[in-house]
Amino acid sequence: MNLPDFDYYIPASLQDACALLAEKGPGAKVLAGGTDLLNKMKHELMAPEVLISLKKLDQLTSIDYVSGKGVVIGSMATHNAISNSSLLQEKYLSVCEAAQHMANNQVRNVGTIGGNIVNAVPSADLPPIFIALGALLTLVSTNGERVMPLEEFFTGPGKTHLAPDELLTGIVIPDNSFTGSTYIKFGLRRSGALAVVGVAVAVEMDGNICKDARIALGAVAPVPMRAKKAEAMMIGNAITDELLEQVGVCASTECNPISDIRGSEEYRRDMVRVFTKRALRKAINNGHV
Amino acid sequence: MQVVVDNNGIKRYLVTLNINGDSYTRVIKANTLLVKFLREEIDLTGTKKGCELGDCGSCTVLMDGKPVNSCIVLAVEADGHEITTIEGVAQNNKLDRIQESFIENAAIQCGYCTPGMVLSAKALLTQNPHPTEQEVRTAIAGNLCRCTGYVNIVKAVLVAADEQ
Lengths: 289, 164
Description:
CATH class of the largest domain in chain A: Alpha Beta
Oligomer: heterodimer
CATH topology of the largest domain in chain B: Ubiquitin-like (UB roll)
Order of helices and strands of chain B: EEEHEEEHHHH
Radius of gyration of chain A: 19 Å
Structural class of chain A: alpha+beta
Radius of gyration of chain B: 17 Å
CATH architecture of the largest domain in chain A: 2-Layer Sandwich
Helix content of chain A: 25-40%
Distance between the termini of chain B: 42 Å
Shape of chain A: globular
CATH architecture of the largest domain in chain B: Roll
Helix content of chain B: 25-40%
Distance between the termini of chain A: 43 Å
Structural class of chain B: alpha+beta
């Protein structure tokens, strides 16, 4: 399968990349890992005239703790760089685990967190755990920088608030007081399968009392979504199996899944009930964020 | 990256890739995929084309030691990188112990997945010389085999690891 022709640029600085993106207009696409973009081009779902590679922007691959800000993950960090990062393993092991269980090793060596977010696939594995942890995106254009909560970024399948001349440069997990988190997904195979249902949760526990809870659902709505009514049922209450069951039921009514080749709407809703309960129990018992 | 424009206005890019230890410089179009570059520019046809969508792993090569699907990597993006293909695994006309183990353990049937499978195994054993069975299975999860049922492939990798 061949790719159509396109012009290729490999800017040496972020400023140059933004200037090129602004100059070339909507016919230009940003090339990160390419594991999604090149497939879309092979299928003629997309025919950009210009590809702007971010490969030379080494600063976008870093994963660092920035005091006063939180953990900053460059948008060009690959899935394997995330799952092998000692900083993330120490502070947010759940993020490492989510990255480690997606696609396959070859794709994890090339695909990037930035691409995973910007492609806005409803079943993507990384957005739910980042939304549960309250992550923020840094978006840069020739007009400057803006920050947007990840949960507000998506507008529909394949659609986001990213302006045509904007680049996603980083994901920030702000400091927080969560005591546990996790992402669990159900796919039709253990490897290389899209999520049929993905549930990420982050909780702050004080003994058996839940002080804060965030539940983010993937693959069961046009965009990754928070189950806010289900979260509200947790906060301030003592955790019991009955409560977790009720929270699961609530989350299953809040989501808005479709029926497709991987599962029916009814099946997905029931899996949200089960997985929300299971994810919350795991995050509460986990002992790590 | 140096750009050459021909009389028809078509742009080509000067790239240098280190492949199996040798340096190759070519002038190519941006839409040349790495698998096509290896097979058609360099005549290294051990790298196979399968699904061409990054799902099957037939086209696996090592880029700076890490397995990647060469069907979804642009050759221009591999400029300046070290590529290992299946032709670069044997040293001094002697098969690698992983290749020997694949033969001894009947881990090859039709053979189409074998180059990619060997490279995924090579990368694993370089990084983790004594993997568990689960770690072997995870490492080759991106390499589909429709013949063997994987049992002998996993065994071959584990035997190769034991021999180290």
